[in-house]
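Figure S4 source data
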Amino acid sequence: MSNRNPPPRPSTGQRKPSGQRTTLPPPPPKPPPPAPAPPPKTAPVPPPPPKQAPPPSKPTQPQSETSVLSQAVSLASRSQRSNMSLKKNHLIWVYVLHAALTTFAVIQLVTLRVMKQNFGLLLSPTVPSFVWLLLAVGCVLILAFVYLANHCPCNCLLAIVIVEMVVIFVNCEQWPRVSLPWMGGILVIVLVLNILLYMMGIYLPLKLLPGHVFMIIVTLCCLVITVSIYVIVYLNGNRYILRYASMVSLLYAATLILFTVTVVHQRRYEYVDRQDNVLQASILAMLFVYMIDVLSTIVRFSQHLVEKI
């Protein structure tokens, strides 16, 4: 026999409703949070400038180097002051000697003219007048290039000899024939002309003044012109043509004075030997006296032309 299912057991409580069980679906998955929006693009910030390194501190000079620099500065200032004093003394000596020699020569020329002493009548038949001028130029060359002659007392004696030679030359030419009023006028003209030339040589720019090359060229040209004039006078016999030689000589003497003044004031050379003052004073005095002869010759020939007219 088959076992039967036992009858259901009566329940005493409320019975649950029978039926099919309903199951709730699982909640949908939460969506992932949205990604944060990217920040707006901005201009790139320039990198900060590199920090400048602090300037290196100056090394402190040792005491010995500082003292050496101070000594060098003091020596430089002292040498500059000594150069200025040397230049001042040089100028004083040059112009004092120049004034003494020139005054001595002018006194002799005035005395000879007042006493009517004509060396042309006394010496020229034996010794031509130009020989005295050549001797004076030779003494200047000796004073310039001979070492022993450029020291005292030889340089002073040579300076006196140079001036005396030029005085004899002037008194052999037209100076004794100039009238007394014209004698004073010639001396004043020569003095004023020399002062003007000195001022020009001191203050004018060097570009406007004669230099070494220019003086060499002018010297050669003047020599050629003067020799040509004397040859023409010798062949022609017309002595009045010599006034052209006098004019050329006046221009050359003025140019040489301009050049000499620039050398005296050390505008061309920074250093001048302390014994060169006698040489420079002698050259200036010789040119001063020579210009007296040139102007007296021009005056005499001008008077002759006026008398003929």
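Figure S5 source data
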Amino acid sequence: MDGDATGAAGRPRVPRCGTRPRTIRPRVTALLAVALALTGCTSAAGTAKPGVAAPATSPSTGGRQAIPDLATTPGRPVPSTEPTGGSLDPSLIRTYSDYDPAPSPEALAGRTAIVAGGVVDGWQRGPTLGVLPGDPAVPHVLMRVRITHPLKGVRTTPSLRGGVMFIEFDRAYEESVADFAKGIPAGTRVLVFGGERPPYEMGIRSPGAPLPGGAKIISVAPQGLVLEDPRLVRRGAERTLVGGHEPLRGGSRAAWLEPRTMDEMIDRLRRFGFSE
């Protein structure tokens, strides 16, 4: 672990001298979201259609049932916000960006190259980027996720043969790896919608902790990480899921709040044909 091991919870979100506010990153996040969408979503004619789930006849779905733009279950009240009172602190990985939101988990799965459930195995130092010597460094951290439920694209992606994903997050305030590990500790169940990260456009000043042979960094879209809060699980709460990059929301995205637990979320995706 590097740097100061103090936790993130309760710390004032004031940027340190010489660092960049987290809110300057929205364009990068939005561009990555578009790149991931283009990777995972094609029409029957083979042309990319960002923001639209592939039809049942598309090669990208392999004959799965058509994915609706909005999927909610009639008869069961859907909450408007994610649950509170848990032990996770996802504030360090929260981003704020403009993007085309997927109205449901299955819609995002239809657009995304890789979908998998897993368990956080730990955190490690990621690459540090920078173009010119005088520019501020852009450090990253990697969340290691041990895959337990491959749903889409896992078995056909050579970099995932080791069964572990390395998911990238920026460290806009130069937080320590220990801060991330405290906010989202090892053992936390996660659901990942992502894809292999495109090559960096900035120079790499430091590669960070080494990856196993053949492994590649995974990027996730703004809605591409769902967490199951351990404290809510231990308390037997009816609803245990929270968002990673951004909170789970209601309204036009109410379908994200329908699954109450990680098992229900995975079962929902399997009902829509996402399973390996």
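The chain has a mean pLDDT of 79. The chain has one domain: 22-66+80-271.
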